[in-house]
Amino acid sequence: MGERGSGGCCPPMDLMRSEPMHLVQLIIPIESAHRTISYLGDLGLIQFKDLNAEKSPFQRTYANQIKRCGEMARKLRFFREQISKAGFSPAVRSVTEADLNLDDLEVKLGELEVELVEINANGEKLQRSYNELAEYKLVIQKAGEFFQSAMSSAEAFQREYASNQSGEESLETPLLSEQETTTDPSKQVKLGFITGLVPREKSIAFERILFRATRGNVFLKQAVVDNPVTDPVSGEKVEKNVFAVFFSGERAKNKILKICDAFGANRYPFAEDLGKQAQTINEVSGRLSELKTTIDAGIVHRGNLLQTIGEQFERWNFLVRREKSIYHTLNMLSIDVTKKCLVAEGWSPIFARKQIQDALHRATQDCNSQVDAIFQVLHTREMPPTYFQTNKFTSAFQEIVDAYGVAKYQEANPGVYTIVTFPFLFAVMFGDWGHGICLLLATLYFIIREKKLLSQKLGDIMEMTFGGRYVILLMALFSIYTGLIYNEFFSVPFELFGRSAYSCRDPSCSEATTVGLIKVRDTYPFGVDPAWHGSRSELPFLNSLKMKMSILLGVAQMNLGIILSYFNAKFFGNSINTWFQFIPQMIFLNSLFGYLSVLVIIKWCTGSKSDLYHVMIYMFLSPTDELGENQLFPGQKTTQLVLLLLALVSVPWMLLPKPFLLKLQHNRHHGESYAPLPDSEESLQSEPNHDSHGHEEFEFSEVFVHQLIHTIEFVLGAVSNTASYLRLWALSLAHSELSSVFYEKVLLLAWGYNNVIILVVGIIVFIFATVGVLLVMETLSAFLHALRLHWVEFQNKFYEGDGYKFYPYSFTLLDYEEE
């Protein structure tokens, strides 16, 4: 069953058992090692083992090459940041690419980084100079207004003073003319001033600190700048005020300078002469226009450079990551004592043997090496990795199984059955063909736009949904199927497959929901008769139907799990598990719950009114009592006694023989630890047959306790797992009732008001409730419950799930790896 290409009428089931693997050894000449690993990475069918695990990364042979690749990767990350800041996007890597030498790329990347860093540095300097000049221009304009207004007010005061006095005094400090005293002109103090810009949010504190530091011996004048100014230091837009501080003496000046530095105030020189002010403004305006032209030219040049880098970025990035992965892999190889060969070991599928040998031969020819690489199979008792060949349809289902645990090498894979059982059990809980159609349309959108969405970056939730698009597709199709069986379209029944078998007893149909229905036609051909909807018996009828159906489905799936444990035992040649695990488990489960399932089917077929609860309870409490009206078939009492006896016998059958037989098996094989390894390739497949206790110290007490736990778990689990399948009934009922509530209490209620506004509001509420609750929350709920039924109730009957995945060395995986 697990062997590839075995004879028979049917093709091999690649998903039923993992691919047969073997451990291979490659002896590669050192001159062709790089190309060989490159070709094997293109092939992607070998998982290398690290033969230098005891060495640190810095002690390995190709540490310097990895360091070079890391440095190039750093430069490429720098380019990516610059490209994204500039608003460009790297071009998609072309399929056909010319070969590029790593040494040439290293030189090219170095030159581009130097050029780009220089452009950025020059651009930052020019931008800072431009921002400083823009601030300087604002200071000249605003401070000039201070002096202009002060000069005009001083001249007015002088004219007024001259009219009152014959004498005429010189005007030295126009801004202080209001406080001018009658002191001697020769003793007047010459005032100094500092101008600049201070952030507006700090202006009040700035003024207060100046006043306190100089004890009020300064005069501060501020003017608000209307628009935010680009700060030369931070490069951010900041709201600022232009200030002018007038002071007397060097000591005050030093204090003011320190306060300006502390508050981040930018100071600029200012000429008091009006002619010089006009000349300075003209010079600053000219320099600003020149800087603007230079900055624009630099931005264009930088954009062209980044665009050139962006066109080749993906190609360079892939090459660097590819080379780095090749050297990482080469570091896992051990060097031969002659220093002329590298020795590699790794796992590969048996079917890939010819492809690997071809890749080795091609690498030798392309390198003009005189010695061909050697390929040989190693025989080992180590457990091989698990490898399933999946496609875009089956991979999502396999991921559901792998999330629980990776299959042990070549054990039966639940993923084969999960493809059908998972969406079906989901649909049993989600049965409504209206909601199923909504899910189907959403999934078809993902499938139709598959190629476009694959190339886009999606959000976490969207990416998860897109990855499971084929799972949701089958969930939708099965939901439509079960919805047709339940006859529910947004909780509304339809006569799709013919007319109802029931009719009203009288023309007025006044008692249609109680006792007024009689059967007038043949049974409704498919699914639930629409006449049940709205009747008094609807809920008891559907409860009975769905509960019994849940038990039937649960017992069937648990039986499938136990049967798969038989195929595992047969495949691995473990007869102990066949006779003392599979057979007693089948007997125990079917003696109780298999018998219950048969009773349900007989009751459906015969229309009997017997109470199955009573039958099952008294089968244990009073097995010898007469059944009376609860008897469904002749000889039922005897049958129940036999089944009860078989169930009781199967418990010690599971518990006792297996530990003693394992003890005998251990004693028989004791001392054969040094037996020669088999030469055939079958050794790998037969290895799992040997119990692990044969190669370790055998502790009978541990084995017995383990078997006791396993037996108790199965016996109790048979009851709890069967009860767990009743969630199918509960979730289905909840979904149906919620759908009915939204339809009757929202949509029909709004319709009854005969008001357009209320109707529109009702329709909107109904749509949002249906999408939010039934199509999102209920879908997630049913998905999680179906997941639990597979992981716990189904897989614990046979699935060990203690293997490890096959991760081949492949360049196709580089695109999905995070740097």
Structure description:
The protein is α+β, with helices and mostly antiparallel strands and 819 residues long. The chain contains 22 helices and 13 strands. The strands form four sheets. Strands 1, 2, 9, 10 and 11 form a five-stranded antiparallel beta sheet that branches. It is extended, with a radius of gyration of 43 Å.
Secondary structure elements and pairings:
Blueprint: E1 21-29, H1 33-43, E2 47-48, H2 63-85, H3 102-164, E3 192-199, H4 203-213, E4 219-224, E5 229-230, E6 237-238, E7 240-247, H5 250-262, E8 266-268, H6 274-331, E9 334-335, E10 341-349, H7 353-366, E11 374-378, H8 394-404, H9 415-429, H10 433-448, H11 450-454, H12 460-467, H13 469-486, E12 502-504, E13 517-519, H14 538-571, H15 575-606, H16 612-621, H17 636-655, H18 657-669, H19 682-686, H20 700-724, H21 727-751, H22 756-794
Antiparallel strand pairs: 1-10, 1-11, 2-10, 3-7, 3-8, 4-7, 5-6, 9-10, 12-13
Helix pairs in contact: 1-6, 1-7, 2-3, 2-6, 3-6, 4-5, 8-9, 9-13, 9-21, 9-22, 10-13, 14-15, 14-20, 14-21, 15-17, 15-18, 15-20, 18-20, 21-22
What value does the Rg take, in angstroms? 43 Å
Number of strands: 13
Helix/strand class: alpha+beta
Number of helices: 22
Report the sheet-strand fraction: 5-15%
Indicate the percent of residues in helices. 55-70%
Shape: extended
Mean of the pLDDT scores?
Answer: 87
Please report the distance between the alpha carbons of the first and last residues.
41 Å
What composes the largest sheet?
Answer: 5 strands, antiparallel
Low-pLDDT stretches are 1-12, 166-173, 176-183, 673-695
Family: Belongs to the V-ATPase 116 kDa subunit family.
Subcellular location: Membrane
Keywords: Coiled coil, Hydrogen ion transport, Ion transport, Membrane, Transmembrane, Transmembrane helix, Transport
Transmembrane segments: 424-448, 469-486, 549-567, 579-602, 638-656, 756-777
